[in-house]
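Quick one, T. Sequence first:
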Amino acid sequence: MVNHERIREASDYIKLKCENIPNVAIILGSGLGFLADKAENSCVIDYKDIPNFPVSTVPGHEGKLVIGNLWGQRVMMMKGRFHFYEGYEAWKVIFPIYVFKELGVKRLIITNSSGGISMDYKPGDIVLIKDVINMAFKSPLRGPNDERLGVRFPDMSKPFDKEWMRKVKEKLNKDGKRINEGVYVWSLGPSYETPAEIKAFRKLGADMVGMSTVPEVIAAAHAELKVLGFSCITNMAAGVLEEPLKHEDVIRVANMVKDKFAQIIKVALEVVK
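Structure tokens:
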């Protein structure tokens, strides 16, 4: 289970290594870690050096915590995340969320690379996540609850901050840009989904699918953080196109949309300054 003492040990180490802890954090998904390289006056800590922190094992997840300035705003970025399919216990997957809370973070941007289910999407699109479906049927909050971390039964009726979303869409529209909204479904992985599963997910109302994000969203609701989510559509889901699915394609497409992704994150930070 998530232990408050473990959280404090990790946060104390981060505060010892880095000054001026920000109140905004960003989790960077597969192939999206480049954004951390744009940070100025940065402090970089390897996950392996932070007490009780898990270590990333997936290609495209470097395993570094970066605190620095992005477009004039101080932010904390996870260059790589953790997944259930890596074999981690539930508390380890969501451990960073509670470290953020202990450090004073109030807002969290969660990003991922996902497969497009909606026929309105194409690889390279960035989608604003408006809701999630937990098809892994696992809760990272299972077990005893520590009231210092959050309430026993957190509300999931508004997992993403509506006001933050509204401001992002308004700013993008003002700049002559448009962003789709969609529902993200969590599939446990590590195998990609079957065409039949994707058909079922579509009927349930899912627009994109991936193997992360939902545990972090649940933990953030528990910790009462304001959350914004973005999916980078790196491939079409199984059965949508007659193409095999490969992780290398996920990284390749994520690299192709670096500038688009960076501009959207810039807007997300600007509207909450």
